[in-house]
Input
Amino acid sequence: MTRAGDAGFAPLVGRGPELHVVEGAFQRLADRRSRDGRGGTVAIVGPAGVGKSRLAREALSIAAAVGTTALTGRAVTTGASTPYRPLIEALAPWARGHAVNEVDLGAHTRALDVLVPGSAGVASDASSPVFVAEALLRLLPLVAGDGPVVLLLEDLHWADGETLAAVEYVADAAESLPLLLIVTARDDEGMPARRLLRALTARGAARLVPLGPFDVDGTRDLAELRLGQPVASGLLELLVDRAEGLPLFVEELLAALDAAGGLARSDVDVDVAPGAVTVLPDTVADTVAARLDGMEDEHRLVVETAALLGRSFDHEVVVAMHDGAVASSLQLATNIGLLHEDPDRPGQLRFRHALLRDGVVASTFPPRRAELARGLLDLLLARDLTDDELAVAIDLAARAGDNALAARLSVRRAMQAFDLWAMSTAEHGLAEARGYAGIDPDLLVEIDIASLKVASIMGRLDVVMRVGQALLARLDVGGRHDAELLETHLRLGQTLLDEERWQEAEPHMQAAAKLIGVADPCQVTRLELWSSLLDRLRGDVASARARAVRAADLSRPDDYQSDLVCCALLYEGRAWLPDIETARARWTESLEYADRYGLRLWRARMLVELALLEADELRGEMKVDEVLREADDLARECGGVSTQTRVALLQARFAVVRGDLEEASAALARAERHGVAGAVSRRAHADLRAALAILQQGAPADLTPAARVLAALVADDVDGARAVAREVDATAGRDVLSLFVDLAGEPATAAFGAVVEASALLPDLPAAAARLAEAPLIAALFTRLHATGTADGRESLQTAVAVFDRLELARPADRCRALLRAAGVPLPRRSSAQEGVPDELRAAGVTARELDVLRLIAEGQTNKDVAAALYLSPRTVEKHVERLLLKTGAANRTALAALGRPTTHR
Output
């Protein structure tokens, strides 16, 4: 692991645009040698810990690389007593090795003793900051040997007034000199420095580079760079919540977790170890303790009370706990940097950072902490709690030592989240409740029943089976636990049906039916729903449809059963297949119902179902990539892991028929990270993995008949493909490789889909191939099977050759070439991976496909534009760009674009 202290030697993360500004300033400075350049000032601003110094250090690295003299100085918290301290520090290394008393700056020589104390041997009478700044400007050419200079001055928010005045003079002059002035400052401290930088920026004397906290992706990138491994979701969530996007705190938290044994490493990723989420970096603990030690106890008590209420706290609750002057205590805490105004609640206060709040809680004497927590809890429980207040109450109960109450409050909060379809929150809340529950049997049963509900919605099938079977062994039969037994049988039956193990599910459904007398309306509806699914798996389609309709009728009158209406329409639509229009109508109705009632996870599910129809029909009427991204975002927000898996598998399916193997591989990897649960998803995953291996010229074993059809088509074994297609069970419904089976199958075996519609357009091959344009690989294979070499099919054959060559599928490509040759058409040469690549890029390993991407980037196109032009996914384009940056050594996208312009290769 890269330690936080080593961060200056690690690659800069997540600051591409900001670094581009700094690089541009260096470029202008370097151009002075040709008399076209200029110096200037760059002001890097942002909150503490955001990475200002890290970006400044990157600037120093650039200076070292181009041979520019660099001087650095820093203001400190005590710097106001030492005028010009940053300038003195910047010149000190040079002064130690030179005879400063021999330097002649003319009239400004007398200011040398200010900049290099002791150099003149006499006290200086120079008092004007402007005079001192001019002396500095005259001295810099001597320091740099008449070359360009980079002057870095850090932490200007702590600088004295003389330094700020001198900086203003230097900044105004820098543009006309071979001088790049770089300053850093916090944007929430040091009003004089803030006013100065605003003024310099307003008059064009400085370029402002504001740094904000990292987003989730930036936090992940930084953590993975420091750890050298992928970061699991639990650790990422901890870093996002506690570091709040500040790179310094991300690194310090990682270092603290590592030192405390709080990182759990596997071959796949790094996660946070159980119980390690409260680790506090020593630097934060020491800082907070020092500030609290300087407060009188009555003020400290108020701050400790506020901290127990969370980072953002209710001022009125703090007042209710204390009779003294609360406002003066909070004012003092604000003055010493612990609190500031809450940007989300104007007029209210919060701790400046979550870790500062944690530090205050950790510094509170434990008996006093428990006493304060009990008093605050009593105040909160007398109120109608919001969700945020309920979370605070759980924490207070635990700190007061009442774990049973903490557990029950956690269950209450988890099920409130469940009702709002916030499944990840519900799952975490129940895990928290279990941690508090101890061995209380009734409380554990309550938690387990709630866990069954959440796990079944999230698709955590292994959890449902494990918890459900354990509950059946513990619950009393004969009255006391009838409601819990009914719920357990329903959840186990649902899970087994999702696994298509209907024979094992049937006893649970029968047991649930016997307990229906204690059922609530939702359980009655769900019994009808799962019975519909059971009938469909048995093959009784008519009963499956009727039960789904009955379930919808049962649930429609009650708004709280709106999710079950969506489920009933989903099941009814599936039972109508292959009547695709009726299924589409039911699923569209379900989508509208989900939107009407704000059911985000059901919206995601129904978008997936409708996208599945597009995967067969390939009409191009649905912007499927956008739809699937929306579905994935919704499922992630709601904790719908199984839906995220289905989205990833569907993305892989589209990528395969498009011939985008990189995106197919990436999508399958995403599905595997989510966990491939459920019989349908597992079959899809296995067939798509096999398809990817086949298209990559592999030889996977144990292929399904559908995968064997694809293997035969790729090998140009048309008769073999048709023979295997007859083995596919047409009554089993559509699958992920159904379009390939349709290519080789008899028309009667394909009930619907793009290939069937394309076949109906024959012998007009161009029209038929155009009908399959959304899936280039399908179109190419269709062309191979139906082309005769006639004049009207030549363009289709040439397009097919290009697709096959790109995928390096030599046999079907050769067959298409043979047809073209027989028709007397000049043959396109078989391309190599680097055909047409200029020599300098070929030497770097750039492929022809990467060159296509590079040239479009050089035209100023975005990744989305490039993806559309080359019929790739945006994710695949991102990968191409990453490889191009690595292969060419280009520093950024701008430099990469320059390599792709035609003039570069003349």
Notes: The first strand starts at residue 40 and ends at 46.
